[in-house]
TrEMBL record:
<feature type="transmembrane region" description="Helical">
    <location>
        <begin position="44"/>
        <end position="71"/>
    </location>
</feature>
<dbReference type="InterPro" id="IPR051598">
    <property type="entry name" value="TSUP/Inactive_protease-like"/>
</dbReference>
<keyword id="KW-0812">Transmembrane</keyword>
<feature type="transmembrane region" description="Helical">
    <location>
        <begin position="116"/>
        <end position="134"/>
    </location>
</feature>
<keyword id="KW-1003">Cell membrane</keyword>
<protein>
    <recommendedName>
        <fullName>Probable membrane transporter protein</fullName>
    </recommendedName>
</protein>
<keyword id="KW-0472">Membrane</keyword>
<feature type="transmembrane region" description="Helical">
    <location>
        <begin position="214"/>
        <end position="234"/>
    </location>
</feature>
<feature type="transmembrane region" description="Helical">
    <location>
        <begin position="12"/>
        <end position="38"/>
    </location>
</feature>
<comment type="similarity">
    <text>Belongs to the 4-toluene sulfonate uptake permease (TSUP) (TC 2.A.102) family.</text>
</comment>
<feature type="transmembrane region" description="Helical">
    <location>
        <begin position="179"/>
        <end position="207"/>
    </location>
</feature>
<feature type="transmembrane region" description="Helical">
    <location>
        <begin position="83"/>
        <end position="104"/>
    </location>
</feature>
<dbReference type="InterPro" id="IPR002781">
    <property type="entry name" value="TM_pro_TauE-like"/>
</dbReference>
<keyword id="KW-1133">Transmembrane helix</keyword>
<dbReference type="Pfam" id="PF01925">
    <property type="entry name" value="TauE"/>
</dbReference>
<dbReference type="GO" id="GO:0005886">
    <property type="term" value="C:plasma membrane"/>
</dbReference>
<feature type="transmembrane region" description="Helical">
    <location>
        <begin position="240"/>
        <end position="259"/>
    </location>
</feature>
Length: 304
């Protein structure tokens, strides 16, 4: 079933794209991540231009985040005040990222930068996830005791001015810290097409010291609005959003998320984290390999 993608300017197997969305949807249901950090590199492997892959993946993440925010909001698992501050930072970051995206695009280096960012981010995060998962697995087997972690924010956060209370998160900190965190995630969302949850959730836990019961919901709240702004910015500036590609991905991811949730209820969390870490590291190594070898077509003509 061949489908023509007008922005990517090529024909793809529509069923394959839906299956790819289904795969990332399963990962979303299993691990609580949007899946955008894997969707973009997998699309690049398939032959989609990196600019179109990043912009269209952000669109998919927007749709996939809506149901998550609603579900967490019903059980009071969203700190809307904290989320609003991070959304503000994310919008600033997305606008800055758009200017950076256009600059790199004009220099002809945007594809290389996207690939390098993925190698660095996925390699680092995958390694940290693998180490943490093995430590948890060892502790569960009684090989060593897992030291309980006291929930507190980073010393740098404690020293910032203009403290205010975030009641849902149980924090009394400066809004500058979540604002800066939002800016960073906004830039990455614009450049890489990711929701940023794989960076945002650990940062909210270990840097801001947020309560675990509101972290995922607040992260999805921020991701929802920032990816909306990112999609609109891409559509108006870079013109790299392929709505047909995003629609096919979203169709598969919605179905896959339900399937992944059922698996997550039966599998051990430590084993799931090891599997996810292995997938992330494998994708990073594949992208690193792609940066070091000569492509099949040295010269390409792109309408972007």
């Amino acid at each position: 079933m061949d489908v023509y993608l007008p922005i990517a300017n090529l024909s793809v197997n529509g069923l394959f794209i839906v299956c790819l969305g289904f795969l990332t949807g399963i990962l979303s249901g299993l691990f609580g991540v949007g899946g955008g950090f894997l969707t973009t590199p997998l699309l690049i492997f398939y032959g989609i231009p990196p600019t179109v892959a990043a912009a269209s993946a952000a669109t998919q993440v927007t749709g996939a985040s809506i149901s998550g925010v609603i579900a967490h909001g019903r059980r009071k698992g969203v700190d809307y005040r904290m989320g609003a501050v991070m959304v503000g930072g994310g919008i600033i970051g997305a606008l800055f990222g758009a200017a950076l995206f256009r600059l790199l695009q004009a220099l002809g280096q945007i594809d290389v930068v996207i690939n390098i960012l993925y190698v660095v981010m996925l390699g680092s995060i995958g390694t940290l996830m693998m180490r943490e998962a093995f430590e948890s697995l060892s502790a569960s087997k009684g090989q060593k005791d897992a030291a309980p972690r006291k929930r507190r924010h980073h010393p740098l956060v404690a020293g910032l001015p203009f403290r205010t209370r975030f009641y849902a998160s149980g924090l009394y900190i400066s809004p500058i810290a979540p604002l800066v965190l939002g800016v960073i995630v906004g830039v990455l969302t614009m450049l890489m097409g990711v929701g940023g949850g794989f960076i945002l959730v650990p940062a909210m836990l270990y840097i801001l010291g947020m309560s675990g019961n509101v972290v995922v919901g607040t992260s999805l709240f921020q991701i929802l609005f920032v990816t909306m702004v990112t999609t609109m910015t891409h559509a108006l500036t870079t013109k790299a959003v392929d709505i047909i590609l995003a629609g096919l991905l979203l169709l598969g991811s919605v179905m896959g998320a339900q399937f992944g949730t059922q698996i997550a209820l039966k599998a051990r969390p430590e084993v799931l984290r090891i599997v996810l870490a292995a997938i992330v590291i494998a994708v990073a190594l594949r992208m690193l390999y792609g940066l070091g070898v000569q492509p099949d077509e040295i010269y390409t003509v792109s309408p972007l």
